[in-house]
Amino acid sequence: MPPEEARVRQHAVYLAWVELMDAVLAEAPLAILVDDAHWSDPLTLLMFARFIESRPTAKLAVILLARRVPVRDDGGAKRVLGASQARIAPMTDAEMLALTRAAGVGGDVAAEEVATRLGAVSGGNPLFLGHLLHQHQTHREPQTMPVDLATLIDDQIRTLSREALRLLQVCALLGRHASLPRVERVLGLTAAQLVLPFGELDDLLALPSDLGQALAPHDLWTERVRRGMTAGVFRTMAVSVARVLEADAQDDGGIEIYWDAARLYQDSGEKQLAFATMMRCAEYLMRAGAASDAARSYEAALEYASTPKMEDTALRGRTRALQTEEAWSDVLATTARIESLDLRRSADQAASDLLSRLFAQWWLGSGDSALLTQLRRVTADHQVSSATRLNAAMLGMAVCDNCLEAEELRLFFEQSAGIDRDSLQAQLAGLKCEVIYETSLGSFERAETSAGKLLAVARDFRETRWSCSRR
Question: What is the pLDDT confidence band of residue 453, given thresholds at 50, 70 and 90?
Fold first, then answer.
């Protein structure tokens, strides 16, 4: 995405977020809790800083939780990080003793001894201490205690059987989409065959135990699991998981599943599969009438495009989505990106690109005096398809009707009448020409008849495209 367009989009997102926050603040005080702020990007922190500083009297609290204070170079982010900071202290000796007793360590002396020993290792970290206590209760303590939770998790992963390790790896890659049916499909196993591996992971507290919760490991577990996978294992399993997610996305229309499948393909080095997945996501959104989301998906597909031809395909899809949204400035920017690609185009593609640009310019009121001349040239060009020629005639008629050029309008209509309607797209464009012409003459009954035919052909066209896309 060009830097200027990226900046415009960032500003638009910020304004939309500000509008939402102001609407909520108008009704009640607001507290925003941001967890894992150490993973945040500078732009997010800058957004919070600007909003907080611009609303000094608002009943607003922004609370950011982080394992460590992020190091940022930009001044805006330093402002929000320079606000009141409070470090959550480690557990006290009394709290660690209470947790040890709650874990089932019997006897006051034994509990105090374990709490002292494991508490010193954990540094008062409740998650680390919980894992150490669980290990103490279910396994013999190792001679050398782990220095941190990451080391403990690595040690526990090394004790897993191959089956349990594969199960944990699949759950980590599925993440928030981890469910038993998906795990079964990725591994090619039944639920009964997974009972023992699940038991191993339960013994290590590696997976959530709450019913109805996704089978995604804690972030720390996921990080250690992914880091411990060899390149070959990761690539194979990531592609397997992505295929399952993509199949579910196609069946259920889950947009976020499409995105996560594409990301896994990308991470595994399969850029072409990632590109194809995002294109299918965009096409699904277009069919669903979500053109704005489709435009963003086409833009995301561009990140995975590895050839100019793939970029061209994604940009043309984005142009269609933006035209549906009537985002004409974005249409002009996208057509300019298409023209900048180092590709040899057919006469029909060049003419189609020209029409997209002329149509956007006309809607923006920036079309020059040569617009009608260019449209007449395309309408008369026998090297381009009938559909493109008829679309040029239709646009010419619309321009003439808008500026009351009746004679020019008639000439465009006469040209359109002599063009073959050899495809559904050509039929659609030809019928649109008839509707415009009859309406301009005041022949509303004939215009209504043409409009009825237009709707019938449009229905056939939609059903044909839907059938092709499903295949």
Answer: confident
Q: Does 330 share its domain with 425? A: no
Report the alpha-carbon distance of residue 409 to residue 405 in Å, rounded: 6
N- to C-terminal Cα distance for the chain?
A: 31
Cβ atoms of 372 and 406 within 8 Å: the answer is no
How far apart are alpha carbons 217 and 238 in whole angstroms? 16
- Single pTM value for the model: 0.65
The Cα 363–Cα 399 span in angstroms is: 10
Q: Do both 244 and 171 map to the same domain?
A: no
For residue 466, the model assigns a pLDDT of 46
- pLDDT for 1 equals 53
**Helix segments in 204-346, DSSP class H:** 219-228, 231-252, 255-267, 271-287, 291-304, 308-325, 328-340
Cβ burial, residue 104 (10 Å; 0-12/13-18/19+): exposed
Last residue within a domain, chosen from 229, 248, 277: 229
The pLDDT value recorded for residue 142 is 54
* Distance between CA atoms of residues 142 and 135, nearest Å: 9
Query: Which region among 95-99, 109-113, 190-194, 374-378 has the lowest average model confidence (pLDDT)?
Result: 109-113
Both structure tokens of 161: 């059987």
Give the H/E segment covering residue 64: strand 60-64
* 236 & 340 share domain: yes
Report the distance separating Cα 96 and Cα 108, nearest Å.
Answer: 13
Q: How many CA atoms lie within 13 A of 349 on its CB side?
A: 12
Instruction: Report whether pLDDT(101) > 70.
Output: yes
Q: Which of 212, 229, 246 is the last residue in one of the domains?
A: 229
Total domains in the chain come to: 5
Share above pLDDT 70 across residues of the chain, in percent, rounded to a whole number: 86
Q: What's the domain range around 46?
A: 3-81
**20-72 pLDDT per residue, tens:** 988 898 888 989 888 777 767 777 777 777 787 788 788 888 888 776 665 55
247 pLDDT above the threshold of 70: yes
In a domain, 261, yes or no: yes
219 and 292 part of one domain:
no
Domain-located, residue 86: no
